[in-house]
Amino acid sequence: MEKSGEKDYSVGVAQRASANLGRALVFLLVPVVTFVALWQGFLFLRENTAPQWIQMIMAIVWGVGGVAALFLVADFLLEQLPTRWKTHLTPVIFVGPALAILGWFLVMPVVRTLYMSFLDASSKKFVGLDNFAYALTNSSMLEAFRNNVLWLVVGTGFSVGFGLSIALLADRTHPRFEAIIESLIFLPLAISMVGASVIWRFVYAFQPAGASQVGVLNAIVTTFGGEPQAWLMLKPLNNLFLIIVLIWLQTGLAMVILSSAIKGIPAELLEAARMDGANEWQVVWNIAIPYIRSTIVGTSTVILILTLKVFDTVFTMTGGNYGTQVIANQFYVEMFRSFQYGRGAAIAVVLLIAIVPAAWYNLRQFGQQSEAFR
Amino acid sequence: MKTKRLSVSKILVYTVLILIASLWTVPTLGLLVSSFRPGEDVTNSGWWTVFQNPAKAKLTLNNYRIVLSNGQDPSLEGVIKSGEQNINLSSAVLNSLTVTIPATVIPILLAAFAAYGFAWIRFPGRKYFFLIVVAIQVVPLQIALIPILRDYIQLKLNGTWLAIWLAHTGFGLPLAIYILYNYINSVPRDILESAFMDGASHFTTFRVLVLPLSVPVLASFGILQFLWVWNDLLVALVFLGAKPEVAVLTQRLVSMVGTYGDRWYLLTAGAFISMILPLFVFFSLQRYLVRGLLAGSVKG
Question: Strands (DSSP E) along chain A, which ranges?
């Protein structure tokens, strides 16, 4: 506490003024130094000359440390401000960065891509609905639509169907056995679509008749006296061979979600049905499946959305050739091979519109779940 | 509840499950076995012959040495064929790590702050902004590629690590905020309120209380994002570009499929290299992965 003497007071003012000046200087200096340091780091990383592993460590430290540093600096600055400012700025610092990035990377692009879809290939001239006319009538797009429907029906149907069946069956076995089986089915989920495509290209590998077959499928076919086939060029069946890769990848996802829903069915409910003389089949169909119906639908929408966007598998295995084009691959071709930005944008918009119904459903689910959010 | 007796139907259930699980495992097993067989063997006989005739089976690490080599290893002379000298997947491994680690940590950091903000700080438009975050989860990332690419070219960011970190951050954030919000919002109110009573700022509360409490959910989302980024092809193709010195594993694997389409001894080894880390994560952290998937499995 200060004494109330005149002299002491003036000293206090001087001290406070210099302290404030010092604080203001620090206030300005800290962010400036941080930004300069981060910018220098960025330039340094861009002009890379060091051995690769050193670059890797520096890049990781710079990226992760940089973001952490920015938050720390923001907090430091916040602490220097008067309370009223602090209250107003705190949410900006907490939520602001995430919202800014979301705005830049997802919200604005929706508007910009929509706008671009009405412009020509180089986004200079307005062309009305031409791009959409192309996207909805061009022959390779029609092929893509037809194939995507096949992917949706067969891919989603089998992934969810297998996932549900395996979850229901495994639920009836010893827990340790169940864990092992589910792990094995689940495992492909860790593998990239590209990796999975290599795995399955190898399964489908083809040698002319007479040569020894190294692909499992052709080995089986020739063992039983059949002709070896180049499965991935076999129109229109090759689509199914591609879809199998997706089923192989996504069944585990469906199974895990559904398995946990099945575990949530009250045991008394099942027991009561059995007591009433229902057999296992009836228990599954009349009790278990209706009970987890909303989870089944939810899982299906998730896999539906994943399937709509399927790209890597087709890109790696056939490149969309031999009648296997899909929307996402056609998008890539228009955008990054033909540089038809207008058409590409129109295809992306079509993709968005196709996803909206599933999205709407998921949002509604969210609305029901989050009563707590007010 | 479950009867112990081994009925016919029980045996049937076990048999069917074992069959399905084998069916699911055989493709990966074939890849793994082939990657350890000498090149001529892989080309001339099926990988299953190793099991039919174990005595004659030869195993080698040469395929891995070839695909990882940058052409500087003299001991590989004679082993390596022309055109295979410089596959250099070891550089792609480093690139994948450089992309994946920050692209996993940065969204977690940003999302944790945002989730805390949505859950514990009152500000105007809170509900409205949060609904946007939830809704935006379903925008396919194809929508964003060209607008962002144009921005990057203007900002001279294209092909830099920062560019791809930011892109993965943007595409991962909605799900991250959503999952983390659900968790952080459920932290008991009195724990935090007593911290505020003691005069702790939001930042301190977040750092000292909420972050440590949220480790399980951070791990769950972290694993999802890690697998997503490590396995991604499209985002890397667009924002890293075709320069081989920055290409990640998935990109290099695709170009290997193009170049060495039927040299299976190389492709299998390359594919397995790209799978080792995700499989390790999968086996060691499966619990968290499952939890993350259950918390929300819609992904842009």
Answer: none
pLDDT at site A198: 93
Confidence band, pLDDT 50/70/90 cuts, at residue A371: very low
Residues forming CATH 1.10.3720.10 domain(s) in chain A = 130-369
pLDDT tens digits for range A293-319 = 888 888 888 888 888 888 999 999 998
Q: What is the pLDDT of residue B298?
A: 40
Q: Cα–Cα distances in Å, from B300 out to A132, A305, B260?
A: 23, 9, 32
Of A91, A102, A311, Cβ closest to residue B117: A91
In CATH terms, the superfamily for domain A130-369 is MetI-like (1.10.3720.10)
> What count of other Cβ atoms lies within 10 Å of the Cβ of residue A110?
17
**Taking residues A197-216, what's their average pLDDT?**
89
| Cβ-defined contact of B170 to A189 (cutoff 8 Å) | no
Give CA–CA dist B189/A76, Å, rounded.
Answer: 26
Global pTM? 0.88
Q: Three-state DSSP class for B39?
A: helix
* The domain made up of B89-295 is a member of CATH 1.10.3720.10: yes
**B6's tokens:** 């081994």
- Cβ-nearest to B298 among A52, A180, A302: A302
Every domain of chain B and the residues it spans: 1-60, 89-295
Using alpha carbons only, how large is chain B's radius of gyration in Å? Answer: 24
Q: How far is CA A228 from the centre of its chain?
A: 37
